[in-house]
Queue: 2 jobs
Job 1
Amino acid sequence: MVEPAVIGTKNVIVAAAEAKVRRVVFTSSIGAVYMDPNRSPDDVVDESCWSDLEFCKNTKNWYCYGKAVAEKAAWEEAVARGVDLVVVNPVLVLGPLLQSTVNASIIHILKYLNGSAKTYANSVQAYVHVRDVALAHILLYETPSASGRYLCAESVLHRGEVVEILAKFFPEYPIPTKCSDEKNPRKKPYKFSNQKLKDLGLEFTPVKQCLYDTVKSLQEKGHLPIPTQQQEESVKIQS
């Protein structure tokens, strides 16, 4: 997971430099940003934050380790080669699927709808709409003043909030109502800042719309049965 990410990243930066590309927009991840056990719950997660590499290694969190190391390699190579690099750090991406198959991000939601998850975890997750991630890339390509990293996130929700939203819009599915951890206090969402992207004019899609669009796409792609009584028209959800 780590080696291809680092080598592949360096190859692209080198190729961009040789081709005299004016700007490279690199898709990193929240995984390179927030995995830090020493961060206080009151601290705001923003573009200055980096995941703790030793902590990632010790906990065998190779996804976050790989994302952080790959992004650091991108910055180092860009400086060395004189490449104008800008980075997007998306959180978990939801919304309509391009492909016919289900990816890891969407399984995160699908399991609460198809009966495979009987309970929800006592944990939190940040979400963003796929169209907002795409638009963020375009904004960073087209805005000369854009620089550094850009955290791409709309909301942080507890899993309990996720299943409540899903149950409200799609009560016909076997959505879990119990937490798998009822002994410990409910985990609190972490604070984050998406102000840098907002300053460029990005208006984030509400997380409820993200969840709704995800389920509609799963129905359209045949991954979920479509209820007979369900209305055909799309719904625009107000924040």
Job 2
Amino acid sequence: MASSSKRKEESHLLNGAVKQSTWSKAFCGNAVWEEKDEFLDVIYWLRQIIAIILGVIWGIAPLKGFLGIAIFCVINAGLLYVYFSSFQQIDEEEYGGTWELTKEGFMTSFALFLVVWIIFYTALHFD
């Protein structure tokens, strides 16, 4: 019960307006981000979701080697670039530039992608 009332308090601002959750702002174009870390967290977790989805697809379709890695890097960086520059239309300089946003969480998503790709490829295409 206490957590329910706490959530209601957190969801309302002092002036009575309803505060949007982080994920509702993430899927709403041109959202206002009060905190930089909140937007960076969204970028990070979107990368992880993309990594899992692409890892499963690459494992099912028997992609191998450098081609699979290169395509993942292009899609991952490209999708997130389009997301923050066109969909959210944020000022990249406020977050340290385009490169900082493009590389936010990239290595962890790359590692997750490799693990998921290897697991699915090995499970489905064993010799």
